[in-house]
Amino acid sequence: MPKNTINFFSKLSFLFWTYVVITVAVSMHRYFLGHDHYGNYLIFKHSFFHLLHGKDLYALYPELKIDLFKYSPTFSVLFSPFTIMPDYIGLVFWNLFNSMLLFFAIKQLHISERIKSFILWFILIELITSMQNFQSNALTAALMIFVFASLEKEKYTLAGISAAAGFFIKIFGILGALFWFMYPRKGNFFLSSVFAAIVLLFLPLLFVSPIELLNIYKNWFNLFSTDVSHELNHSVISILKNWFNVEVNKSLMQAIGFILLVLPLFRKNNFREINYRLLFLCSVLIWSVIFNHKAESPTYIIAVVGVSIWFFISKRSPLEISMILFLFLLTSLSPTDLFPKDLRDNYIIPYSLKALPCILIWMKIQYDLLSFGRIKTVN
């Protein structure tokens, strides 16, 4: 391919419009397939109406039989602008909000424009999978990256707001707060995140009374107290269960995983290296999925963003190249029609193989962080 052509496709302006066009096309395609193909959007939309009418947000409603609403009441309020739109418009704008925020989050990273373009191309298939399900995973990944990028630029208030918003959209979004340990002026970040969290905690008071809000939060916590693994879960936990018939305590497994995750934070002398900080960002993004007992296929946009950053800033030895090809095949392509259906139904899903490449790459990243000897200088 001519160099001029490669340069054209590598331009972020071209990628911006590519993301817009693909987002609109995916959204409209699902709309024309009917309500059953955008059930998550309808759950989000109706949660705000349930909040307004004093109904239990976390009950199962016949018209929304696909699933329960599992997000915070704050998420219902934040989603309210989309509820005033007709579905065919709201679907597009919701997915655009996710894809564009992720696009601009990656754009904020302190890496070359060329690497950013490689990352944006590489994650596109996984992003489409997430958008087809109208989930908030791209938004969650974006907010975690914004925490990191804002701290890099010493914008502590924005970092704190992003961390708090990440928590109230998806609880594991709070993992972005771990980046706090690698930067100075920790008090600024802490105070801004606490203030933002308090505002978001009480935001639903614009529509409900304090007593009603207290009951809503009680119902939300009750939902999590009876939380079970998703039947289509792809994680370390599901691999242990499906491969070895081992029933593990998810809380214990997540605690062990968390200890392994934060070990690099004890190597303070490495914090001054941008490569080290970027690798820890990758580790957090991947960890939030592979140790999540509710991680479905669309959740993997978060992990794949972390993987793509790791690959394009690392030494691309035969090992790294083989690992990324393994991931592209099993993680990104397996949910698509390009992958043989029999293999997907008989092997990928039953044995949670979508998670395997991400687990192996996360282990490699942790090794690199703890040894910090084989990391390419970022251009």
Describe this structure in words.
The structure is a single chain. α2 runs parallel beside α8 and α7 runs antiparallel to α16. Helices cover 66% and strands 0% of the residues. The longest helix is centred in the N-terminal third of the chain and has 22 residues. The mean pLDDT is 91. The chain has a domain of 160 residues. With 379 residues, the chain is an all-alpha fold.
Short note summarizing the structure:
The protein has 379 residues and is an all-alpha fold. The chain is built from 19 helices and no strands.
Structure characteristics:
379 residues; globular
- C-alpha end-to-end distance: 23 Å
Fraction of residues in H or I helices: 55-70%
Q: Counting H and I runs of at least 4 residues, what is the number of helices?
A: 19
- General shape: globular
Radius of gyration: 20 Å
Largest sheet: none
What proportion strand?
Answer: under 5%
- Mean of the pLDDT scores? 91
Strand count: 0
The helix/strand order is: HHHHHHHHHHHHHHHHHHH
Q: List unreliable stretches of 5+ residues.
A: none
Oligomer kind: single chain
Structural class label: mainly alpha
SSE arrangement:
Layout lengths: L2 H8 L1 H22 L5 H14 L20 H6 L1 H4 L3 H21 L5 H10 L1 H9 L4 H16 L3 H14 L16 H17 L7 H16 L10 H9 L5 H13 L11 H17 L9 H14 L4 H16 L7 H8 L7 H16 L8
Helix pairs in contact: 2-6, 2-8, 6-9, 7-16, 9-10, 9-16, 10-11, 15-16, 15-19, 16-17, 16-19, 17-19
